[in-house]
Specification:
- There is one protein chain.
- Helix 2 packs across helix 3.
- The chain is α+β, with helices and mostly antiparallel strands.
- Helices cover 20% and strands 25% of the residues.
- The protein has three helices and nine strands, in the order βαββββαββββα.
- The protein has two domains: 55 residues, 2,3-Dihydroxybiphenyl 1,2-Dioxygenase, domain 1 (Roll), CATH 3.10.180.10; 87 residues, 2,3-Dihydroxybiphenyl 1,2-Dioxygenase, domain 1.
């Protein structure tokens, strides 16, 4: 099935997506289901909701049916895609508070999971890492919208600055 590509000049006049739309869940291809479950449940703290034998599992936060699907349908024993190929850059997991993000940092440190980066974007603070299959993961919390940086015209002015991990860890100790 071919979807026609609209003229870029007409994109300005296109209807916007509904304001309440959100990303409901993501399915990740993994090489080893048990290893993936251990990472997402034992390290990050998601809850296993359901398994389909040795091929798939569904995990969530707070009892939702699933935020993340893990499957080996096309990837059992496989390797991550090589650099320079298209695909998922990262999955972003939103934490409700800064203290919750700090707890995630502690969990990662205790499990010996290295960070690829840690950034303060003005609107949010984020930790970047890879799961055992090489999938990019962003763990973040959003500052209240009233605190988001804006330019003189009121437009959003996001930044990428070094996140103070010691200050974030202090939040976990508080």
């Amino acid at each position: 099935m071919s979807i026609p590509v609209p003229n870029p000049a007409s994109r300005q006049a296109a209807r916007s997506i509904a304001a309440g739309a959100r990303i409901g869940h993501v399915h990740l291809k993994v090489a080893d289901l048990e290893r993936a479950i251990a990472f997402y449940c034992d390290v990050l703290g998601f809850e296993l909701q359901q398994r389909y034998g040795s091929q798939a599992a569904f995990v969530s936060a707070g009892g939702y049916h699933h935020h993340i699907g893990l499957n080996t349908w096309e990837s059992k024993g496989g390797s991550p895609p090589p650099p320079g190929t298209t695909g998922l850059f990262h999955v972003a997991i939103l934490y409700p508070t800064r203290a919750d993000l700090a707890d995630a940092l502690v969990r990662l440190a205790e499990a010996g999971i290295p960070l690829d980066g840690a950034s303060d974007h003005g609107v949010s603070e984020a930790l970047y890492l890879r799961d055992p299959d090489g999938n990019g993961i962003e763990l973040y919390w959003d500052r209240p919208e009233a605190d988001w940086p804006r330019d003189a015209s009121g437009a959003l002015a996001m930044v990428t600055q070094r996140l103070d991990l010691e200050a974030l860890l202090a939040e976990a100790r508080a």
